[in-house]
Amino acid sequence: IRTTARLYRIASIPGDGIGTETTDAAVQVLEKLAEVSGKFAFEWDHVDWNSKTYREIGSYIPPGGIERLKKSDAIFFGACGWPDIPDHISLWSLILPLRHRLNQYVNVRPTRILRGTSSPLSSCVADPSALDWVIVRENSEGEYAGQGGTTHAGTPLAVGTEVAIFTRPGIERVMRFAFDTAAGRPRKLLTMVTKSNAQRHGMVLWDAVYDEVRAEYPDVAADRMLVDAMTCRMVLRPRSLDTIVATNLHADILSDLAAALAGSIGIAPSSNLDPTRENPSMFEPIHGSAPDIAGKGVANPVGAFWSAAEMVRWLGQGEAADRLMEAVENAAAKGARTKDLGGQSGTKEVTDAVCKELEGMT
Ligand code: ATP
Ligand code: MG
To answer: Which family does the UniProt entry place this protein in (predicted)?
Structure first.
């Protein structure tokens, strides 16, 4: 019998700093996964946009760049930014335009405590299953819409306005996605987060859309929280939460907290999705370029591996995604852990350990 392996074209953008190290590691692990699965293969488009590109041409994305990415089935991204370039410039020159231009309007951030790692919360040390969340982040508007301006710049009277834009269609589509996500999980539990006591326009619109969409999902137990109280609840009652939906800014902050509660920012994955599937979705660990540890071979590649697993799942290979996570957890449980997780291993040792686990599963 001849079987044809499915070929996926992946654009990989390693970027800067540890982004290049964790992306290399993820590519190696994905190649191994494809090999042991036998059901699919990857064709890579190696995209070398980074801070060097910005210094040379004043932009991270060269002309024709978006069209190039649109030819791929998915995008794998590392991290971008370097200390000589202000963070808001690198963010607004690469990652935010990609999310906007490729209509990636939701950002999904799963968090749980992987086997072999541990949480700083004593309740989760006693019972790691107490923390198992999916944060659904609005990824296209809100506080990161880029609206606002500065008047009297550079003078003692300087005024900066930062305008958050919330639109009904924008809120509605992410709210539906969050309810669908919650409905597809065993506990069918959704918490919607705003700051609608202090912000009375866009946040109140979020509340209104939540009430409407909620009526369509009688099977989902939904509640709402103010973002400040939510931080306490995440720490004090992790088990009371499952799926969480919040604005661009709020979910950004809550997902860093979630990553820390699950053990390290180095393990946290994210998926920038275009749920219409008209454009390729983009998968990236949530960590940044981390100049302090770049080039030392110590970066934790698990966030990149988990993001790779989410990419493979999005491409329709759920079994392979599960297998990859199983390998990651087996390796961690056997001691292949980087320093941020309290271990002794470097990036390469963890990568080799995961590949070895994958081989052992055939
Ligand atoms: P950004 O501005 O993009 O958020 P950053 O460099 O300011 O990036 P992060 O890289 O997200 O911040 O992380 C902050 C710190 O956490 C890093 O400086 C590093 O010490 C640590 N860290 C982040 N990612 C990892 C990782 N994968 N492995 C080990 N440590 C990490
Ligand atoms: Mg950061």
So the answer is: Belongs to the isocitrate and isopropylmalate dehydrogenases family.
Please report the ipTM that was assigned to this predicted complex: 0.94
Query: Does any ligand 1 atom lie closer than 6 A to the CB of residue 83?
Result: no
Ligand nearest to the CA of 79: 1
Distance 175 CA to ligand 1 centre (A): 30
Q: What percent of the chain clears pLDDT 70, i.e. is strictly above it?
A: 99
Burial (CB count <10 Å: 0-12, 13-18, 19+), residue 110? buried
Report d(CA 27, CA 285) in Å as an integer.
13
- CB 150, CB 159: distance < 8 Å: yes
What b-and-e string marks burial along 43-64, b requiring 16 or more CB atoms within 10 Å of the CB? eeeebebbbebbeeeeebbeee
What's the CA dihedral at 48, 52, 58, 63 to 10 degrees?
Answer: -10
Q: What pLDDT, in 10s, does the model give residues 31-48?
A: 999 999 999 999 999 999
- Reduced to 3 states (helix: H, G, I; strand: E, B; else coil), residue 94 is helix
Reading the block at residue 148, the tokens are: 């606002």
Using DSSP's 3-state secondary structure scheme, residue 274 falls into coil
CA 82/CA 84 separation, integer angstroms:
6
Residue among 265, 267, 270 to mutate when testing ligand 1 (max atoms within 8 A of CB): 265
Q: Determine the Cα–Cα distance for residues 189 and 171; give it in Å rounded to an integer.
A: 19
